[in-house]
Amino acid sequence: MGPEIRLDGDALRHNVAAFAALGAPVAAVVKSDGYGWGARRLARELDPHVESYVVADDDELAALRPATAKPVRLLADVPAARLRRVLALGGIANVSTREGIAAAAAAGAPLVRVGILDATGWSAIPPDEAGAFAGALTATGLAVELWTHVTSPAREAAILADLAAARRVFEAAGVRVAGVDVASTASARRETAGARLRIGAGLFGGRLGSPVATRCAIAVRAPVVRRYRAGEARWAGYGDRPVPVGRPLAVLRCGYGDGFPQELADSADILAVGMQYTTRALGTGDPSLLIGPEDDLDALAARARRSVHQLVVGLAR
Ligand SMILES: *Cc1c(COP(=O)(O)O)cnc(C)c1O
């Protein structure tokens, strides 16, 4: 019998409310099948509480649609031939090319998303192309939602200034700007709330520096397969990690094969993490609860020497 790895629906909803308290509704980012946890499953927990959803492309939109009637925003451009599918599924398309603008207009889209960002990995236009792009949009009458993404805390001010400048250029060209969204979990603050907050990792309890009181929505409970009295065992797992003197131990059926980071070994009460078994020094808490509501996902990710995103995705089943 392996570990029980669960999502806490109440904590997910608490986190949505905590971000929304910054002053804008939450668009739940459920790309990559809801960070591995299931986009439809997240929608079943969150649908009445979120404004909309964000996914990567039309396949993710199609997979999510049975679970929600709310708007679904796409992050990536889709090829012209698939734009009608996006519209038929009630998706809001993203465009970052002239061909994309023409295809969206031809398909009868009322609104498209346009990203302003000079970084690879997103379907956005570089800030210095805003003027030419606005010119191409004006002729079509398409309204736009402008967005950017803070891909570097150090460059946040410049990224936001580029977005504000692009907005002025679009409006001067006669393009109707229906809304602006900027913030993901890390950049979510009252000042960046805009029309909506795009929250992914924060749903699970990540803060990434954002001033929100989130709760850990991931729970990992592992069966205790063996207990050792204080002094009964000498070494923990592989290698030369001595067990602490005077502490009883438990071996739990959960390991890195279950997504529990091996890097957590040798931190706090976790002495060793093998593929399927973890050795823990026992204190006063519930011995079988490896990750629970009292945990802080950001601190846990730091101890595991990975990002909150990697931790969340790695624990998904
Ligand atoms: C993935 C992504 C998000 C969500 O980021 P989190 O850090 O998980 O909140 C928001 N916006 C864009 C453009 C993204 O690619």
Give the oligomeric state: single chain
Uncertain segments: none
What's the β-strand tally?
A: 16
Distance between the termini: 15 Å
Mean pLDDT comes to: 97
Adjacency order of strands in the biggest sheet: 5-4-3-2-10
Ligand inventory reads: pyridoxal-5'-phosphate
Radius of gyration, whole Å:
23 Å
Relevant terms:
11 helices; alpha/beta; binds pyridoxal-5'-phosphate; five-stranded parallel sheet; 317 residues; four-stranded parallel sheet
What does this structure look like?
This protein is of the alpha/beta class. The strands form four sheets. A five-stranded parallel sheet has the order 5-4-3-2-10. Strand 4 (72-74), helix 5 (83-88) and strand 5 form a beta-alpha-beta unit. The radius of gyration is 23 Å and the shape is elongated. The chain contains eleven helices and 16 strands. Residues 29, 31, 75, 122, 149, 184-186, 198-202, 309 line the site of pyridoxal-5'-phosphate. Pyridoxal-5'-phosphate is lined by residues 29, 31, 75, 122, 149, 184-186, 198-202, 309.
